[in-house]
Write a structure and sequence with these properties.
alpha/beta, Rossmann fold, Helicase, Ruva Protein, domain 3, 3 domains
Length: about 350
């Protein structure tokens, strides 16, 4: 079945005991998975009733044991196996045989980018439970997705803006979601986003320039970051928008740090944060440099934003000082004495 059909089942409270989610469209797949988590667990004790495994690292025996564990303070547990196609042959065989008598007190979710239905595990999952495929959307479907994503963010897109960001994203919904997020950070609420505004901010060149400035600072390269900020100013970039994207990036670094502390595999973190694959490795290097100090920057960035809007401080001076503090934090993260976002020593 398709995602819309499965969502209709969830609306009726019909949750299968075994579920196979497969296909290359990660954005829709993860949206359905998030909704499934809410449907199965609700406000229950998630830490006791949710367990996630990764195929390359997991053993069939431990997945089976988790599936057979009784829920705590909730009617059902949720066991998720990502990259299930990477489980070794013995593990796949064990799980396939266990599906002859599926557990009623737990929902087993198998997630695969590519399901090979010549293998017993995938055949068993499809026959004993439910199967949802997630294929890349057709080009003609992308404008509709753009409008719905924008509506979720409180944005109204002009027809020209829709055409522009769809052209940038192609047929990749994750990229489209990233374009919409950027516009939500820099566009004024209450009025339609024009094609000109979308062209300015959805374009990879301009956005990449801003994120390169932030990335240079996060990697300890202050001269490059300041030079890049000067170039953006010369091109007419508004410092307020740079501050908005700086805050966004700090939140992503902070979330990355939380996931690392939660023992989430490193290769999984960028995907969870909606990061494009081409930027994943560089992002993780930057996040490692900033570490837990990323969250400390949110208040200084907000203070700077307010000061600029009130005319109390010179905009570029605020941007430059924050970039310097980010650089200092990244250098401390590589082994120097730790300082907070305001430059104070512990």
């Amino acid at each position: 079945m398709k995602a819309a059909e499965f969502n209709a089942l969830l609306d009726k409270g019909a949750i299968p005991g075994v579920l196979l989610l497969h296909g290359p469209e990660a954005y829709l797949r993860d949206r359905v998975l998030a909704r499934l988590k809410s449907a199965v667990l609700g406000n229950a004790l998630v830490e006791f009733n949710l367990e996630t495994f990764y195929g390359r690292e997991a053993q069939g025996e431990e997945i089976l044991q988790s599936w057979r564990t009784l829920p705590f303070g909730a009617p059902r547990r949720l066991v998720i196996v990502r990259d299930v196609e990477k489980i070794n042959a013995a593990g796949q065989e064990l799980l396939a045989e266990a599906m002859d008598a599926p557990e009623e007190s737990a929902c087993l979710v198998l997630v695969a980018e590519k399901a090979d239905f010549r293998k017993k595990l995938f055949v068993a999952a499809r026959s004993r439970g439910a199967e949802v495929s997630f294929m890349k959307p057709f080009e003609r479907e992308m404008p509709g997705y753009a409008r719905r994503m924008a509506q979720e963010r409180g944005l109204v897109l002009s027809e020209g803006a829709v055409a522009r960001i769809v052209e940038e994203a192609g047929e990749d919904l994750l990229s489209l979601a990233g374009e919409i997020e950027k516009l939500s950070l820099v566009s004024a609420s209450g009025r339609p986003v024009s094609e000109e505004e979308a062209a300015r901010w959805s374009g990879r060149r301009r956005a990449a320039s801003v994120f390169k400035v932030i990335g240079d600072a996060a990697s300890g390269r202050l001269p490059e970051a300041l030079a890049g900020a000067d170039r953006l100013a010369e091109e007419g970039e508004e410092p307020i928008k740079v501050l908005s994207l700086l805050a966004r990036q700090m939140r992503l670094y902070a979330l990355s740090d939380d996931l690392v502390r939660g023992n989430v595999p490193r290769q999984e973190i960028p995907r969870r944060l909606g990061m494009a694959p081409m930027f994943s490795q560089e992002f993780m290097v930057q996040a490692d440099c900033i570490g837990s100090r990323a969250a400390e920057f949110l208040r200084p960035i907000l203070d700077g934003d307010v000061a600029v809007k009130r005319g109390a401080r010179e905009p570029m001076r605020v941007v430059e000082q924050l970039l310097a503090r980010v650089t200092l934090a990244s250098l401390c993260g590589k082994g120097g004495k730790k300082r907070d976002a305001r430059g104070r020593s512990d």
